[in-house]
Amino acid sequence: MGHVALVLSPSPVASVLHGRSTRSSVKKHRRFCSSPVMATVSEDPIREWILTEGKASEITRISSIGGGCINYANRYDADVGSFFVKTNREIGPSMFEGESLGLRAMYDTKSIRVPLPYKVGSLPPSGSFIIMEFIEFGCSRGDQSVLGRKLAEMHKAGKSDKGFGFHVDNTIGSTPQINTWKDDWIEFFAEHRLGYQLKLARRQFDDPIILELGERLIKNMHVLFEGAVLEPCLLHGDLWSGNISSDKDGNPVILDPVCYYGHNEAEFGMSWCAGFGGSFYNAYFEVMPKQPGFEKRRDLYMLYHYLNHYNLFGRGYRSSALSIIEDYLRMMKVSTV
User: Fold this and answer.
1) What does the longest C-alpha to C-alpha distance in the chain come to?
2) Which of 25, 38, 33 is nearest to 9 (CA)?
3) Exactly one of 238, 247, 249, 299 is catalytic; which is it?
4) E-assigned strands of 37-127?
5) Per-residue pLDDT tens over the stretch 55-64
6) Which SUPFAM superfamilies match (predicted)?
7) How confident is the model at residue 142 (pLDDT cuts 50, 70, 90)?
8) Shortest CA distance to 98 belongs to which of 173, 1, 166, 19?
9) Which of 38, 39, 52, 212 makes a 20 to 30 Å CA pair with 293?
């Protein structure tokens, strides 16, 4: 889902590249324009890093890559290459620190390509930034079967001996995502995913109905996991079409993670706007075999993201979330009244 307080104002039709954007944004839109480099190094920690630790002697151009609903994004061209920079003038470094840790964790699996994070820091007088590798995108999202296989390889390689959770809490869109470690996946998903979103909806929209019915689902959903192997796998966490691309060689690239270690099937919770086809799933399950009851659990994982969209974007998503809850309650013969 992704604002540069530095240098340029984004085009209203541009989306964030490598940044949180609205679901209707066109992720691949690129609108480069020249911009003078006016701030001195001492005033600008981004320039300071690029000209010191980034080993550049000159920044030749700063180009806007648009703005989304949370962050701004710029491309910095220098004599040693290009850097991708996201900034936010309202939120401190914690959000970008979570993103950086997630990117590094995915990068270290040596599976699917992600931009390598370089630096997270604070902006004066307020705000934060992240500097990362600039990846030149190709003209498509690449081969679906390769994406499926590479994603499965990441899930297979990225394991945790601490259980389900992550080293830090992070944000999905602008919603906090709690990642406190738990040994039990069903308990983790119930408390930190569905339960958190349901309580947030109750507070934001005075919606006791969705909370009450959602809590009934939570109390009974263990039956949906019978026979499944539940082990902590490294997840991207927000894998929709805007966060999937390919590099100029056609290799799949995934961006803007909200990583945690969870049941691998939770990665498909955004499949309703990810465009995964049959070749994707066939290739994925060749590496990570399909678990018993997969089809029964698919909507459960989508529910988390529908609830998050309800909390982020309003009542237009309530009916989808409530419909999933009621369908599960009927299936499990639990009262919906």
Assistant:
1) 68
2) 33
3) 238
4) 59-67, 72-78, 81-88, 117-122
5) 999 999 999 9
6) Protein kinase-like (PK-like)
7) confident
8) 166
9) 212
